[in-house]
């Protein structure tokens, strides 16, 4: 499946993520499991990232599954 661009607001800033649908689904599921809004979870990932946001989200999701 091709990556798709998604727009959201984190910490008052409009931003976008380009993710494959499976990553978008996993991100929504992770936010729900942690009892956080999608924007709050992405904001946490954004604060800790050292690469572009889309890559940081993919790595965060991978590490979440790997450590789970």
From TrEMBL:
InterPro entries: RHH_dom (IPR027373), RHH_sf (IPR038268)
Coiled-coil annotated residue ranges, if any: none
Keyword Transferase applies: yes
Ribbon-helix-helix domain: residues covered: 4-63
One MF annotation (Gene Ontology) recorded for this entry: transferase activity
Lineage: superkingdom: Bacteria
Keywords from the UniProt entry: Transferase
Gene3D superfamilies (UniProt xref): protein bp1543
Protein name: Aryl-sulfate sulfotransferase
Protein source organism: Sandarakinorhabdus cyanobacteriorum
Lineage: Bacteria, Pseudomonadati, Pseudomonadota, Alphaproteobacteria, Sphingomonadales
């Amino acid at each position: 499946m091709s990556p798709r661009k998604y727009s959201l607001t984190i910490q008052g800033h409009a931003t976008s993520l380009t993710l494959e649908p499976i990553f978008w689904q996993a991100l929504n599921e992770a936010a729900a499991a942690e009892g956080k809004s999608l924007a709050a979870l992405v904001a946490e990932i954004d604060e800790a990232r050292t690469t572009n946001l889309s890559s940081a989200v993919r790595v965060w999701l991978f590490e979440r599954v790997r450590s789970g």
